[in-house]
Amino acid sequence: MLNKKFITLGFITTATAISLFFSPSLFAATPPKVIQKPVTEASRLEALAKFTKVLSIVEQYNVDDVTLQELIDKSLQGMMTNLDAHSAFMNKKSFESLKVQTDGEFGGLGITVGMKDGALTVIAPLEGTPADKAGLKAEDIILKINDKSTLSMTIDDAVSVMRGEIGTPIDITVVRKSETKPLHFHIIRGKIDIQSVYTKQIDDSILYIRITSFDKKVVEGVKKAINQYKNKDKGIILDLRNNPGGLLDQAVGLVDLFVDKGIIVSQKGRTKTEDKEYDATTAATMTKMPMVVLINGGSASASEIVSGALQDHKRAVLVGTKSFGKGSVQVVLPISEDEAIKLTIARYYLPSGRTIQAVGVTPDIEVNEGVIKTDDNNDFMIKEADLKQHLEKELQKDAGKADKTKEKDKDDKVITKEQMFKDLQLKEAFGIIKALIITKG
Fold first, then answer.
1. Deepest in the core among 18, 66, 86, 236, taking most CB within 10 A?
2. Is the domain covering 107-193 a CATH 2.30.42.10 domain?
3. Distance (Å, rounded) from C-alpha 281 to C-alpha 223?
4. 317-320 and 17-18 as β-strands: parallel, antiparallel, unpaired?
């Protein structure tokens, strides 16, 4: 009999995270109701008889000795993985791993992967993890793991191969659009303990909020940041780049902080029982400050819900590149005490009714990653200080200001001009938010 507890991953399993990172999960009281098409008892018995017959033949004549339990598990794996890229049968080992990873601290590489156009693809490396430090990037296609081809691997197979003890090595071979040859990475597995919300200041008037994943602390973290700077800041830059997803309630709650009415996201499944709408509330809204949201190809799932909802409500300007395109809903349904299935039950839709699945969110202003070149060191330019009668007292005042700026630059809570010039997308976002502040008073 089906255990009534189940885990709702929502749009959350942008894919399975590698030892990674598996999106935290919501627990619900009852599983979705199953409404089946009319099937005659005779046809059902005929189908089950065919399955039983094949099992018996394989068990008896297969070249290798395979137990009935192993054959059943393999059958379930094959059935689930052939439904779609995100459905899967979870044996005792993988189900236990899921429950461990929802605690938010684990060992591994720190990347989230998914299937894109049939290829195992990096959705995003998580900030500060071994994969991030090694140089893996969003949209890298993983060709090999320890010299083993990924062509026939499912997401869960890849997770199983990449997961390992802290301190052990692994070799990853990837294809990257900007490179002519495959890239090889030798990575040492590490302990993954993620801080999901980072906040900094830009130019004494802009609150920069970076969200790396949607865990259970996101909404509270953003609330705290807004309250801390609400009498000082005039605009917000929300950075969702390389954010692979997380909890549904946190995504909805985050949008609710900035939008006071209307649909945030809706989901539609095979039956009406899976159809739901999540609405914004006036009571939860904290600020009407102008906003810019940064996204890229590593922004998936919850990140796409947040950015797409803010875009549809005309609440923020989106800057960057098109997001990943993961908008399906998975639930984890236990079938015994230590086994479960992960099943896709619905798709998510933005307030305008557009889908995310396989489409993604297109930014209002497309800006590729890059570095801005400056002419600060141009020795051929004649400046005021080079003139014979320049105003020395004014220069002394400016020097004093510069010294204070240098002191402030040391503060890791401040994004400096130099840091912005190393991030073209952030620099563009800064220019846009300044313009919004001016036009909106």
1. 18
2. yes
3. 15
4. unpaired
CATH class of the structural domain 197-324+348-366: alpha beta
Question: pLDDT tens for residues 73-97?
Answer: 999 999 998 998 889 999 888 887 7
26-39 pLDDT, tens digit per residue, is: 333 345 555 555 66
Average pLDDT over residues 58-79: 94
List 132, 233, 312, 423, catalytic entry: 312
Active-site option among 234, 326, 342, 427: 326
> Would you call 301 a catalytic residue per the annotation?
yes
- Alpha carbons 236 and 10: distance in angstroms, whole number: 27
The domain segmentation of the chain, as residue ranges, is 107-193, 197-324+348-366, 383-422
Residue 17 half-sphere exposure toward CB, CA atoms < 13 A: 40
Degrees, nearest 5: CA angle 46-331-17: 115
Does the annotation mark 84 as catalytic? Answer: no
The Cα 20–Cα 202 span in angstroms is 32
Instruction: Tell me what pLDDT residue 397 has.
Output: 54
